[in-house]
Design a protein that fits this description.
With about 140 residues, the protein is mainly alpha-helical. The protein contains 5 helices and 2 strands. It has a two-stranded antiparallel sheet with strand order 1-2.
Length: about 140
């Protein structure tokens, strides 16, 4: 990471949604007009370190965050005391489903199952996981 990229991490200009380093070392900012009135000024994410992780670690990290998001959404819905709507429940379920899918894919990639053998079906991924484990007693 060059000096200009390090400097860009300190304070982002108002309305910037993404920053990336070009091959020549310069830094490019991507503006988003919706961020001009951002509630939490200076809050941003940086994927530079994430991109360096092996694929199975990326999927594992994402799976944990989708699980945490599902838990937060579910708790907020439960704490509100209101009847849960279909869209609310669907979003919670989608986050949980994606967390499970990414976790299983992470495990399978770690066990050297080729990524082109993986799909989005949890039942298929679970079957592959069970077949890939040397100890058949683990479920």
């Amino acid at each position: 990471m060059n000096q200009s990229m390090k400097e860009s991490k300190r304070k982002l200009p108002r309305g910037v949604s993404a920053v990336f380093e070009n091959k020549d070392g310069s830094v490019t900012y991507i503006r988003d007009p919706y961020l001009d009135e951002m509630k939490w000024e200076g809050v941003y994410v940086n994927s530079v370190e994430f991109k360096t992780l092996p694929s199975h670690e990326k999927l594992y990290a994402l799976s944990i965050q989708y699980l945490k998001a599902a838990i937060v959404l579910c708790e907020k819905a439960g704490d509100s005391g209101e009847k849960l709507t279909w869209p609310q429940g669907s979003v919670v379920f989608y986050n949980l489903h994606l967390a499970t899918e990414l976790f299983l894919k992470s495990c399978l990639l770690c066990m050297k199952v080729p990524s082109n053998k993986l799909n989005h079906e949890i039942a298929d991924l679970l079957r592959q996981y069970e077949n890939a484990i040397p100890e058949k007693n683990i479920t």
